[in-house]
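Batch manifest line 475
LIGAND: flavin-adenine dinucleotide
JOB: complex structure
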Amino acid sequence: MQQLMWFRSDLRIDDNTALSQAMSRGSTIALYLVTPGQWQRHDDAPCKVDFWLRNLAQLSRALAALNVPLLIRQCEDWNQAPAVIAEVCHQHNVCAVHANEEYGINESLRDRCVAAYLAQQDIAWHSHLDQLLFKPGSILTRSGGYFQVYSQFRKVCYEHLHMALPGRVARPVAQAPTPLASDAIPQAVDGFAMPSEQLRSLWPAGEEAARQRLERFADEQIGYYKDERDFPALPGTSQLSPYLAAGVLSPRQCLHAALAANRGEFDSGNAGVVTWVNELLWREFYKHILVGYPRVSRHRAFRPETEAVAWRRAPEELAAWQQGRTGLPIIDAAMRQLLETGWMHNRLRMIVAMFLTKNLLIDWREGERFFMRHLIDGDLAANNGGWQWSASTGTDAAPYFRIFNPISQSQKFDPEGRFIRHWLPELAGLNKRDIHDPASLGGLFAPAGYPRPIVDLSRSRERALAAFRNLGQEV
Ligand code: FAD
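JOB STATUS: finished
ARTIFACT:
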């Protein structure tokens, strides 16, 4: 019985639940839908689309070794997905379609429509848990609700992990050859500019590249993760987020690599491993939030009362933030890292997000959208979660009165100014004291060609406090 594997954000053959299920049931063909209109509507970054295409090319080669042809179909958006998939099924006599679950509101709607459309034609639909360690709905409060507090969520995740670790699925074995040929993978998609070769070289495509990165991190760095992860000048974090977001790597593979570095323990022993596993659980938490509280998928604040914040319309300040010319070195260096590499260090994501939403008092949705348009690891759940955390509008968010000061953050997490010097060569001549706050040098000594701060930090802090205090939030 012919099976169809529909690849989406799971671009790998190793430890791929849906692929293994499909291939265990019969001869399998694979499909990927190129949907530029949908991607535009989701603000998917050109570098991310390019990363998908490069990984698809690798995936196609890996599938060919299993004698699974990969078909590519293009349609404008997901409204057309049911008909396009049904047509492929009819052409190739497919009796069942397999896919791994995705959790955004549009993704869920798309899958329900595809399943219903296929059912009318007697084609079975199977969706599988794969992108997460725990199925949304399986980690709940005593009263049966979704958790809103990460530490409580994590505690229940630990209980589940103690009972049974999510296992990896076996790599499928090659099936008998089929006469059907794979389609060519597009090199580019209209509307998505090709990123620079320099950016591409930072993120090599394919499962092998992802596996090597994971192994190197687990062998050499994970033990230092707790102490080094907040310092953007160090290679302290795994930089696996683009691979996890595109599904070139699974969270189970990450979990098992971490456990192997800590004698099978995840909540005791090596502090670096424990901290890293906790980050994987943040990823998990925000995806569960997406399912439990779908309003966050609709650009709504998690905490409804914060919808009333009087955000400022300040297009020039927004543009300065976007282009890395705010006059605050740590902010500008971080934004340049984003623009040039498609990625930003987590500590910096928090600093720039807090600066935009508190010091500039600009709506977090502006920042969320800009990040999505530039991140190679852009992921609705994590991005929305991170922005709403920073803006104090989200679940388990930073309290509104705890506003990061970008200069003290810079002094603390880039003490030598190495990160700033790398991204802002115009400040390279400043010593490690002045580099965090060149404006303090005064007119004559301020470095030429670098702007003065666009905002006064203490006055803008007071303005943000007042804006939130007016909502009547408890301190
Ligand atoms: P590591 O520190 O090595 O962590 C391992 C993995 O855990 C990451 O690859 C990621 O999958 C997951 N993870 C780590 N921290 C978080 C977190 N706070 N929330 C959710 N998952 C996490 N992450 C994204 O993957 N996509 C996004 O679009 C995204 N947008 C963000 C926006 C803001 C404003 C903030 C504050 C954070 C955002 N994050 C996002 C979370 C985090 O910054 C990145 O996951 C991390 O920087 C990726 O680097 P890494 O792979 O080296 O992470």
